[in-house]
Structures
1.
Amino acid sequence: MSNVKVAVVFYSMGGTNYQLAKWAAEGATEAGAEVKVLKVQELAPDSVIEGNEGWKATVNATKDVPVATSADLEWADAIIFSTPTRFGVMASQMKQFIDLQGGLWANGKTINKVVSAMTSAQNPHGGQEATLLSLYTAMMHWGAIIATPGYSDPVVFGAGGNPYGTSVTVGQDGKMIEDVQAAVKYQAKRTVTVAEWVKKGNQ
Ligand SMILES: Cc1cc2nc3c(=O)[nH]c(=O)nc-3n(C[C@H](O)[C@H](O)[C@H](O)COP(=O)(O)O)c2cc1C
Protein backbone atom coordinates (compact mmCIF):
# COMPACT_ATOMS: atom_id res chain seq x y z
CA MET A 1 0.00 0.00 0.00
CA SER A 2 1.50 3.34 -1.01
CA ASN A 3 0.74 6.37 1.14
CA VAL A 4 0.13 8.53 -1.92
CA LYS A 5 -3.15 10.40 -2.39
CA VAL A 6 -4.26 11.01 -5.97
CA ALA A 7 -6.94 13.38 -7.29
CA VAL A 8 -8.05 12.54 -10.83
CA VAL A 9 -9.64 15.74 -12.12
CA PHE A 10 -11.51 15.72 -15.43
CA TYR A 11 -13.82 17.64 -17.69
CA SER A 12 -15.86 15.74 -20.25
CA MET A 13 -18.70 16.65 -22.60
CA GLY A 14 -18.99 13.37 -24.49
CA GLY A 15 -17.77 10.89 -21.87
CA THR A 16 -14.28 10.19 -23.21
CA ASN A 17 -12.32 12.03 -20.54
CA TYR A 18 -14.59 10.61 -17.86
CA GLN A 19 -13.59 7.14 -19.06
CA LEU A 20 -9.90 8.12 -19.14
CA ALA A 21 -10.28 9.43 -15.57
CA LYS A 22 -11.85 6.15 -14.41
CA TRP A 23 -9.05 4.10 -15.99
CA ALA A 24 -6.46 6.40 -14.35
CA ALA A 25 -8.20 5.89 -11.01
CA GLU A 26 -8.02 2.10 -11.51
CA GLY A 27 -4.30 2.31 -12.30
CA ALA A 28 -3.55 4.53 -9.30
CA THR A 29 -5.61 2.28 -7.01
CA GLU A 30 -3.76 -0.81 -8.28
CA ALA A 31 -0.52 1.04 -7.44
CA GLY A 32 -1.78 1.29 -3.85
CA ALA A 33 -2.81 4.95 -3.81
CA GLU A 34 -5.87 6.48 -2.20
CA VAL A 35 -7.84 7.97 -5.10
CA LYS A 36 -10.59 10.52 -5.67
CA VAL A 37 -12.22 10.98 -9.10
CA LEU A 38 -13.51 14.54 -9.43
CA LYS A 39 -15.14 16.60 -12.18
CA VAL A 40 -14.64 20.31 -12.68
CA GLN A 41 -17.58 22.69 -12.56
CA GLU A 42 -19.61 22.88 -15.79
CA LEU A 43 -19.75 26.41 -17.20
CA ALA A 44 -21.95 25.96 -20.26
CA PRO A 45 -25.54 27.20 -19.98
CA ASP A 46 -28.21 24.52 -19.41
CA SER A 47 -29.95 25.71 -22.58
CA VAL A 48 -26.93 24.66 -24.66
CA ILE A 49 -26.49 21.30 -22.89
CA GLU A 50 -30.21 20.56 -23.27
CA GLY A 51 -29.86 20.63 -27.06
CA ASN A 52 -27.11 18.00 -27.15
CA GLU A 53 -28.04 14.37 -26.36
CA GLY A 54 -24.43 13.20 -25.83
CA TRP A 55 -23.64 16.07 -23.50
CA LYS A 56 -26.84 15.50 -21.52
CA ALA A 57 -25.94 11.82 -21.18
CA THR A 58 -22.50 12.71 -19.78
CA VAL A 59 -23.99 15.20 -17.31
CA ASN A 60 -26.33 12.43 -16.17
CA ALA A 61 -23.59 9.77 -16.02
CA THR A 62 -21.40 12.05 -13.87
CA LYS A 63 -24.13 13.50 -11.66
CA ASP A 64 -22.83 11.72 -8.56
CA VAL A 65 -19.17 12.60 -9.19
CA PRO A 66 -18.10 15.33 -6.74
CA VAL A 67 -16.96 18.70 -8.10
CA ALA A 68 -13.25 19.24 -7.45
CA THR A 69 -12.29 21.87 -4.88
CA SER A 70 -9.09 23.51 -3.63
CA ALA A 71 -9.35 21.28 -0.55
CA ASP A 72 -9.12 18.21 -2.81
CA LEU A 73 -5.93 19.55 -4.38
CA GLU A 74 -4.49 20.36 -0.98
CA TRP A 75 -5.28 16.77 0.09
CA ALA A 76 -3.63 15.24 -2.96
CA ASP A 77 0.05 14.41 -3.39
CA ALA A 78 -0.53 13.84 -7.09
CA ILE A 79 -3.07 15.19 -9.57
CA ILE A 80 -3.96 13.57 -12.87
CA PHE A 81 -5.87 15.88 -15.23
CA SER A 82 -8.00 14.81 -18.18
CA THR A 83 -9.49 17.35 -20.58
CA PRO A 84 -10.78 17.40 -24.14
CA THR A 85 -8.74 19.32 -26.71
CA ARG A 86 -10.59 22.55 -27.50
CA PHE A 87 -9.10 24.57 -30.36
CA GLY A 88 -5.71 23.16 -29.38
CA VAL A 89 -5.86 23.97 -25.68
CA MET A 90 -7.60 22.62 -22.56
CA ALA A 91 -11.37 23.08 -22.18
CA SER A 92 -12.35 26.39 -20.56
CA GLN A 93 -14.04 24.50 -17.73
CA MET A 94 -10.64 23.02 -16.77
CA LYS A 95 -8.91 26.39 -17.15
CA GLN A 96 -11.51 27.98 -14.89
CA PHE A 97 -10.81 25.30 -12.26
CA ILE A 98 -7.07 26.00 -12.49
CA ASP A 99 -7.70 29.76 -12.28
CA LEU A 100 -9.74 29.25 -9.11
CA GLN A 101 -6.63 27.90 -7.37
CA GLY A 102 -5.00 31.33 -6.96
CA GLY A 103 -5.46 31.16 -3.19
CA LEU A 104 -3.90 27.71 -2.98
CA TRP A 105 -1.01 28.87 -5.17
CA ALA A 106 -0.49 32.07 -3.14
CA ASN A 107 -0.16 29.98 0.02
CA GLY A 108 2.47 27.74 -1.53
CA LYS A 109 0.12 24.76 -1.51
CA THR A 110 0.58 23.82 -5.18
CA ILE A 111 4.35 23.40 -4.81
CA ASN A 112 5.70 19.88 -5.30
CA LYS A 113 2.36 18.38 -6.33
CA VAL A 114 3.16 15.66 -8.83
CA VAL A 115 1.01 16.20 -11.92
CA SER A 116 0.30 14.38 -15.15
CA ALA A 117 -2.28 15.00 -17.88
CA MET A 118 -4.33 13.20 -20.54
CA THR A 119 -6.47 14.44 -23.39
CA SER A 120 -8.64 13.47 -26.34
CA ALA A 121 -9.30 15.10 -29.70
CA GLN A 122 -11.36 14.37 -32.78
CA ASN A 123 -8.39 14.39 -35.17
CA PRO A 124 -5.19 12.35 -34.89
CA HIS A 125 -3.21 15.58 -35.13
CA GLY A 126 -5.84 17.89 -33.67
CA GLY A 127 -3.69 19.53 -31.00
CA GLN A 128 -3.21 16.82 -28.36
CA GLU A 129 0.38 17.78 -27.46
CA ALA A 130 -0.48 21.49 -27.48
CA THR A 131 -3.37 20.83 -25.09
CA LEU A 132 -1.14 18.93 -22.68
CA LEU A 133 1.48 21.68 -22.91
CA SER A 134 -1.19 24.29 -22.13
CA LEU A 135 -1.90 22.45 -18.90
CA TYR A 136 1.75 21.84 -18.10
CA THR A 137 2.52 25.56 -18.61
CA ALA A 138 0.15 26.37 -15.74
CA MET A 139 1.74 23.56 -13.70
CA MET A 140 5.19 25.18 -14.04
CA HIS A 141 3.69 28.29 -12.44
CA TRP A 142 2.35 26.10 -9.65
CA GLY A 143 5.81 24.73 -8.89
CA ALA A 144 4.37 21.30 -9.58
CA ILE A 145 6.49 18.35 -10.66
CA ILE A 146 5.38 17.20 -14.07
CA ALA A 147 5.52 13.43 -14.50
CA THR A 148 5.01 12.53 -18.15
CA PRO A 149 5.07 8.96 -19.46
CA GLY A 150 7.81 9.77 -21.97
CA TYR A 151 8.76 6.52 -23.68
CA SER A 152 9.41 4.86 -20.35
CA ASP A 153 7.35 1.76 -21.23
CA PRO A 154 6.41 0.00 -24.51
CA VAL A 155 2.73 0.50 -23.68
CA VAL A 156 3.10 4.16 -24.71
CA PHE A 157 3.91 3.13 -28.30
CA GLY A 158 0.87 0.88 -28.41
CA ALA A 159 -1.38 3.82 -27.54
CA GLY A 160 -0.14 6.11 -30.31
CA GLY A 161 3.18 7.08 -28.73
CA ASN A 162 2.37 10.41 -27.09
CA PRO A 163 5.17 11.00 -24.54
CA TYR A 164 3.48 14.16 -23.16
CA GLY A 165 0.59 12.15 -21.72
CA THR A 166 -1.92 9.63 -22.99
CA SER A 167 -4.14 10.98 -25.76
CA VAL A 168 -6.87 9.33 -27.75
CA THR A 169 -8.69 10.11 -30.97
CA VAL A 170 -12.48 10.24 -30.78
CA GLY A 171 -14.43 9.35 -33.94
CA GLN A 172 -17.54 11.10 -35.25
CA ASP A 173 -19.54 8.44 -33.40
CA GLY A 174 -17.96 9.55 -30.11
CA LYS A 175 -16.06 6.26 -29.68
CA MET A 176 -12.33 6.04 -28.93
CA ILE A 177 -10.25 4.86 -31.88
CA GLU A 178 -6.99 3.74 -30.22
CA ASP A 179 -7.01 1.32 -27.29
CA VAL A 180 -5.39 3.47 -24.59
CA GLN A 181 -6.64 1.78 -21.42
CA ALA A 182 -3.30 0.13 -20.61
CA ALA A 183 -1.37 3.34 -21.33
CA VAL A 184 -3.68 5.37 -19.06
CA LYS A 185 -3.24 2.87 -16.25
CA TYR A 186 0.52 2.86 -16.79
CA GLN A 187 0.62 6.68 -16.69
CA ALA A 188 -1.35 6.67 -13.44
CA LYS A 189 0.97 4.07 -11.87
CA ARG A 190 4.02 6.04 -12.92
CA THR A 191 2.50 9.19 -11.42
CA VAL A 192 1.99 7.36 -8.12
CA THR A 193 5.58 6.08 -8.21
CA VAL A 194 7.02 9.56 -8.82
CA ALA A 195 4.78 10.97 -6.06
CA GLU A 196 6.12 8.29 -3.70
CA TRP A 197 9.70 9.33 -4.51
CA VAL A 198 8.90 12.99 -3.96
CA LYS A 199 7.06 12.33 -0.70
CA LYS A 200 9.85 10.14 0.63
CA GLY A 201 12.52 12.64 -0.41
CA ASN A 202 10.61 15.44 1.30
CA GLN A 203 10.27 13.69 4.65
C1 LIG B 1 -15.49 23.76 -29.04
C2 LIG B 1 -14.76 22.52 -29.44
C3 LIG B 1 -13.46 22.63 -29.91
C4 LIG B 1 -12.77 21.50 -30.32
N1 LIG B 1 -11.49 21.62 -30.78
C5 LIG B 1 -10.84 20.53 -31.26
C6 LIG B 1 -9.52 20.65 -31.78
O1 LIG B 1 -8.89 21.71 -31.75
N2 LIG B 1 -8.95 19.53 -32.32
C7 LIG B 1 -9.61 18.34 -32.37
O2 LIG B 1 -9.06 17.39 -32.90
N3 LIG B 1 -10.83 18.17 -31.80
C8 LIG B 1 -11.46 19.25 -31.26
N4 LIG B 1 -12.70 19.10 -30.69
C9 LIG B 1 -13.24 17.75 -30.47
C10 LIG B 1 -13.02 17.34 -29.00
O3 LIG B 1 -11.66 17.35 -28.67
C11 LIG B 1 -13.61 15.96 -28.70
O4 LIG B 1 -14.99 16.04 -28.93
C12 LIG B 1 -13.30 15.60 -27.25
O5 LIG B 1 -11.95 15.26 -27.16
C13 LIG B 1 -14.13 14.48 -26.72
O6 LIG B 1 -13.89 14.40 -25.32
P1 LIG B 1 -15.11 14.19 -24.31
O7 LIG B 1 -15.88 13.04 -24.85
O8 LIG B 1 -14.48 13.90 -22.99
O9 LIG B 1 -15.92 15.46 -24.28
C14 LIG B 1 -13.40 20.22 -30.26
C15 LIG B 1 -14.71 20.12 -29.75
C16 LIG B 1 -15.37 21.25 -29.35
C17 LIG B 1 -16.78 21.12 -28.81
2.
Amino acid sequence: MPKSQPLIELREVTKSYDSPEGRTTPLKEVSAVIPPESVIALMGPSGTGKSTLFRLLNRLEDPDHGSITYKGKPLSEWDPILLRREVHYVFQSAVLFPKTVADNLNYPLKLQGKSMSEEEMARLLERVGLSKSYLTRSIEKLSGGEKQRVHLARSLSLNPHVLLLDEPTASLDPESTERIEQEMRCYREKGHTVLWITHQPEQARRIADQVWHLESGHLRQEEMKR
Ligand SMILES: Nc1ncnc2c1ncn2[C@@H]1O[C@H](COP(=O)(O)OP(=O)(O)OP(=O)(O)O)[C@@H](O)[C@H]1O
Protein backbone atom coordinates (compact mmCIF):
# COMPACT_ATOMS: atom_id res chain seq x y z
CA MET A 1 0.00 0.00 0.00
CA PRO A 2 1.17 3.61 -0.63
CA LYS A 3 3.51 4.91 2.07
CA SER A 4 1.44 8.13 2.33
CA GLN A 5 -1.62 6.21 3.58
CA PRO A 6 -1.90 5.08 7.21
CA LEU A 7 -1.60 1.34 7.70
CA ILE A 8 -3.33 1.56 11.06
CA GLU A 9 -5.24 4.55 12.38
CA LEU A 10 -6.58 5.06 15.90
CA ARG A 11 -9.24 7.72 16.32
CA GLU A 12 -10.07 8.89 19.85
CA VAL A 13 -9.72 5.39 21.25
CA THR A 14 -10.79 4.96 24.87
CA LYS A 15 -10.51 1.76 26.90
CA SER A 16 -11.41 1.35 30.58
CA TYR A 17 -11.53 -1.54 33.00
CA ASP A 18 -13.65 -1.82 36.14
CA SER A 19 -12.32 -3.73 39.12
CA PRO A 20 -13.12 -3.81 42.86
CA GLU A 21 -10.44 -1.09 43.29
CA GLY A 22 -12.26 1.21 40.86
CA ARG A 23 -12.04 2.20 37.23
CA THR A 24 -8.75 2.26 35.26
CA THR A 25 -8.58 3.99 31.88
CA PRO A 26 -5.32 2.99 30.17
CA LEU A 27 -6.31 4.72 26.90
CA LYS A 28 -8.08 8.10 26.88
CA GLU A 29 -9.15 9.35 23.47
CA VAL A 30 -5.90 8.23 21.90
CA SER A 31 -5.45 9.19 18.23
CA ALA A 32 -2.45 8.10 16.21
CA VAL A 33 -1.36 6.87 12.82
CA ILE A 34 0.97 3.96 12.07
CA PRO A 35 2.53 4.38 8.64
CA PRO A 36 3.38 1.34 6.52
CA GLU A 37 6.97 0.08 6.66
CA SER A 38 7.75 1.51 10.06
CA VAL A 39 9.06 0.42 13.43
CA ILE A 40 7.26 1.98 16.40
CA ALA A 41 8.72 1.57 19.88
CA LEU A 42 6.04 1.63 22.57
CA MET A 43 7.22 2.78 25.98
CA GLY A 44 5.66 3.62 29.31
CA PRO A 45 5.74 2.55 32.94
CA SER A 46 4.36 -0.83 33.94
CA GLY A 47 0.55 -0.95 33.88
CA THR A 48 0.06 2.03 31.57
CA GLY A 49 -1.75 0.22 28.78
CA LYS A 50 0.86 -1.00 26.29
CA SER A 51 -0.53 -4.56 26.21
CA THR A 52 -4.05 -3.12 26.18
CA LEU A 53 -3.21 -1.32 22.94
CA PHE A 54 -1.85 -4.58 21.45
CA ARG A 55 -5.00 -6.46 22.49
CA LEU A 56 -7.13 -3.84 20.72
CA LEU A 57 -5.00 -3.99 17.56
CA ASN A 58 -5.32 -7.78 17.55
CA ARG A 59 -9.08 -7.67 18.30
CA LEU A 60 -8.69 -9.65 21.47
CA GLU A 61 -10.70 -6.75 22.92
CA ASP A 62 -12.59 -3.81 21.43
CA PRO A 63 -12.38 -0.12 22.41
CA ASP A 64 -15.18 1.36 24.55
CA HIS A 65 -15.21 4.43 22.31
CA GLY A 66 -13.43 5.51 19.16
CA SER A 67 -12.33 3.46 16.19
CA ILE A 68 -9.33 1.65 14.78
CA THR A 69 -8.82 0.99 11.09
CA TYR A 70 -6.36 -1.38 9.41
CA LYS A 71 -5.71 -0.80 5.69
CA GLY A 72 -8.58 1.71 5.75
CA LYS A 73 -11.19 -0.76 7.05
CA PRO A 74 -12.53 -0.65 10.64
CA LEU A 75 -11.18 -3.55 12.71
CA SER A 76 -14.78 -4.42 13.61
CA GLU A 77 -15.34 -5.32 9.93
CA TRP A 78 -12.31 -7.61 9.74
CA ASP A 79 -12.70 -11.34 10.26
CA PRO A 80 -10.62 -11.74 13.47
CA ILE A 81 -8.86 -14.86 12.11
CA LEU A 82 -7.82 -13.08 8.91
CA LEU A 83 -6.82 -9.98 10.84
CA ARG A 84 -4.62 -12.02 13.22
CA ARG A 85 -2.84 -13.59 10.26
CA GLU A 86 -1.87 -10.09 9.14
CA VAL A 87 -1.45 -8.40 12.54
CA HIS A 88 0.34 -10.99 14.65
CA TYR A 89 0.80 -10.67 18.41
CA VAL A 90 3.99 -12.23 19.81
CA PHE A 91 3.17 -12.54 23.50
CA GLN A 92 5.92 -11.95 26.03
CA SER A 93 5.79 -15.44 27.47
CA ALA A 94 6.41 -17.96 24.73
CA VAL A 95 3.41 -20.19 24.06
CA LEU A 96 5.18 -23.38 22.97
CA PHE A 97 4.24 -27.01 23.50
CA PRO A 98 6.52 -29.66 25.02
CA LYS A 99 7.89 -31.27 21.85
CA THR A 100 10.92 -30.44 19.71
CA VAL A 101 11.78 -27.02 18.30
CA ALA A 102 11.03 -28.39 14.78
CA ASP A 103 7.57 -29.56 15.87
CA ASN A 104 6.83 -26.11 17.27
CA LEU A 105 8.11 -24.30 14.18
CA ASN A 106 6.04 -26.49 11.88
CA TYR A 107 2.85 -26.25 13.90
CA PRO A 108 1.17 -23.10 12.46
CA LEU A 109 1.85 -24.13 8.85
CA LYS A 110 0.63 -27.66 9.59
CA LEU A 111 -2.68 -26.13 10.66
CA GLN A 112 -2.89 -24.60 7.19
CA GLY A 113 -2.11 -27.99 5.57
CA LYS A 114 1.44 -26.91 4.67
CA SER A 115 4.88 -27.84 5.97
CA MET A 116 8.43 -26.54 6.02
CA SER A 117 11.61 -28.27 4.95
CA GLU A 118 14.46 -28.71 7.41
CA GLU A 119 16.43 -26.08 5.48
CA GLU A 120 13.57 -23.56 5.75
CA MET A 121 13.34 -24.18 9.49
CA ALA A 122 17.12 -23.79 9.83
CA ARG A 123 16.94 -20.45 8.00
CA LEU A 124 14.18 -19.26 10.35
CA LEU A 125 16.30 -20.17 13.37
CA GLU A 126 19.29 -18.40 11.87
CA ARG A 127 17.20 -15.19 11.60
CA VAL A 128 16.81 -15.20 15.40
CA GLY A 129 20.40 -16.22 16.09
CA LEU A 130 19.93 -19.94 16.78
CA SER A 131 21.78 -22.74 14.97
CA LYS A 132 20.23 -25.62 13.03
CA SER A 133 21.20 -28.03 15.85
CA TYR A 134 18.29 -26.60 17.88
CA LEU A 135 15.73 -28.26 15.58
CA THR A 136 15.89 -31.56 17.44
CA ARG A 137 16.15 -30.00 20.91
CA SER A 138 13.25 -30.43 23.30
CA ILE A 139 11.42 -27.22 24.24
CA GLU A 140 11.49 -28.07 27.96
CA LYS A 141 15.30 -28.02 27.95
CA LEU A 142 15.67 -24.54 26.46
CA SER A 143 16.44 -21.38 28.43
CA GLY A 144 13.86 -18.56 28.64
CA GLY A 145 15.74 -16.52 26.01
CA GLU A 146 16.00 -19.50 23.65
CA LYS A 147 12.27 -20.17 23.97
CA GLN A 148 11.54 -16.52 23.28
CA ARG A 149 13.59 -16.74 20.05
CA VAL A 150 11.90 -19.98 18.91
CA HIS A 151 8.58 -18.25 19.54
CA LEU A 152 9.62 -15.30 17.37
CA ALA A 153 10.95 -17.63 14.65
CA ARG A 154 7.60 -19.43 14.60
CA SER A 155 5.81 -16.09 14.20
CA LEU A 156 8.18 -15.13 11.35
CA SER A 157 7.26 -18.36 9.54
CA LEU A 158 3.79 -16.86 9.04
CA ASN A 159 5.29 -13.72 7.47
CA PRO A 160 2.69 -11.41 9.06
CA HIS A 161 2.31 -7.91 7.68
CA VAL A 162 2.44 -6.38 11.18
CA LEU A 163 4.28 -7.79 14.19
CA LEU A 164 3.26 -6.78 17.72
CA LEU A 165 6.27 -7.63 19.89
CA ASP A 166 6.01 -7.56 23.67
CA GLU A 167 9.57 -7.11 24.98
CA PRO A 168 11.04 -9.71 22.59
CA THR A 169 14.58 -9.26 23.88
CA ALA A 170 13.78 -9.09 27.61
CA SER A 171 15.70 -12.30 28.41
CA LEU A 172 18.48 -11.91 25.85
CA ASP A 173 22.17 -11.00 26.07
CA PRO A 174 23.41 -7.95 24.09
CA GLU A 175 24.64 -10.03 21.12
CA SER A 176 21.33 -11.90 20.69
CA THR A 177 19.45 -8.63 21.19
CA GLU A 178 21.46 -7.02 18.38
CA ARG A 179 20.62 -10.02 16.13
CA ILE A 180 16.87 -9.55 16.71
CA GLU A 181 17.07 -5.77 16.25
CA GLN A 182 18.90 -6.29 12.94
CA GLU A 183 16.33 -8.87 11.83
CA MET A 184 13.49 -6.47 12.57
CA ARG A 185 15.19 -3.68 10.57
CA CYS A 186 15.35 -6.13 7.63
CA TYR A 187 11.72 -7.03 8.21
CA ARG A 188 10.72 -3.38 7.86
CA GLU A 189 12.86 -3.06 4.72
CA LYS A 190 10.87 -5.94 3.22
CA GLY A 191 7.73 -3.78 3.64
CA HIS A 192 6.50 -4.89 7.05
CA THR A 193 5.60 -2.90 10.16
CA VAL A 194 6.68 -3.63 13.72
CA LEU A 195 5.32 -2.35 17.02
CA TRP A 196 7.78 -3.14 19.77
CA ILE A 197 7.20 -2.74 23.51
CA THR A 198 10.45 -1.90 25.25
CA HIS A 199 11.46 -0.44 28.60
CA GLN A 200 14.89 0.59 27.29
CA PRO A 201 15.16 4.13 25.83
CA GLU A 202 18.46 3.22 24.09
CA GLN A 203 16.80 0.30 22.35
CA ALA A 204 13.88 2.50 21.28
CA ARG A 205 16.36 4.97 19.77
CA ARG A 206 18.21 2.18 17.95
CA ILE A 207 15.20 0.47 16.38
CA ALA A 208 12.38 2.95 15.97
CA ASP A 209 11.17 5.46 13.40
CA GLN A 210 8.79 6.75 16.08
CA VAL A 211 8.72 6.31 19.83
CA TRP A 212 5.30 6.31 21.47
CA HIS A 213 5.27 7.23 25.15
CA LEU A 214 2.11 6.07 26.89
CA GLU A 215 1.36 7.57 30.28
CA SER A 216 -1.85 8.24 32.25
CA GLY A 217 -3.95 7.29 29.23
CA HIS A 218 -2.25 9.72 26.85
CA LEU A 219 0.11 9.12 23.98
CA ARG A 220 3.09 11.34 23.15
CA GLN A 221 4.76 10.64 19.85
CA GLU A 222 8.43 11.29 19.25
CA GLU A 223 9.78 11.18 15.70
CA MET A 224 13.27 9.70 15.38
CA LYS A 225 15.71 11.18 12.88
CA ARG A 226 17.18 8.59 10.49
N1 LIG B 1 -9.05 -7.41 32.14
C1 LIG B 1 -8.70 -6.43 32.96
N2 LIG B 1 -9.49 -6.10 34.02
C2 LIG B 1 -9.15 -5.10 34.86
N3 LIG B 1 -8.05 -4.31 34.69
C3 LIG B 1 -7.24 -4.59 33.67
C4 LIG B 1 -7.52 -5.65 32.74
N4 LIG B 1 -6.53 -5.68 31.81
C5 LIG B 1 -5.68 -4.68 32.13
N5 LIG B 1 -6.10 -4.03 33.24
C6 LIG B 1 -5.45 -2.87 33.88
O1 LIG B 1 -5.21 -1.91 32.83
C7 LIG B 1 -3.96 -1.27 33.05
C8 LIG B 1 -3.09 -1.44 31.82
O2 LIG B 1 -2.69 -2.80 31.72
P1 LIG B 1 -1.67 -3.29 30.60
O3 LIG B 1 -1.51 -4.77 30.77
O4 LIG B 1 -2.11 -2.79 29.28
O5 LIG B 1 -0.32 -2.52 31.03
P2 LIG B 1 1.15 -2.58 30.41
O6 LIG B 1 1.55 -1.18 30.11
O7 LIG B 1 1.18 -3.55 29.29
O8 LIG B 1 1.99 -3.14 31.65
P3 LIG B 1 3.37 -3.99 31.73
O9 LIG B 1 4.47 -3.09 31.24
O10 LIG B 1 3.49 -4.25 33.21
O11 LIG B 1 3.18 -5.25 30.93
C9 LIG B 1 -3.36 -1.89 34.32
O12 LIG B 1 -3.67 -1.04 35.40
C10 LIG B 1 -4.09 -3.22 34.45
O13 LIG B 1 -4.19 -3.61 35.79
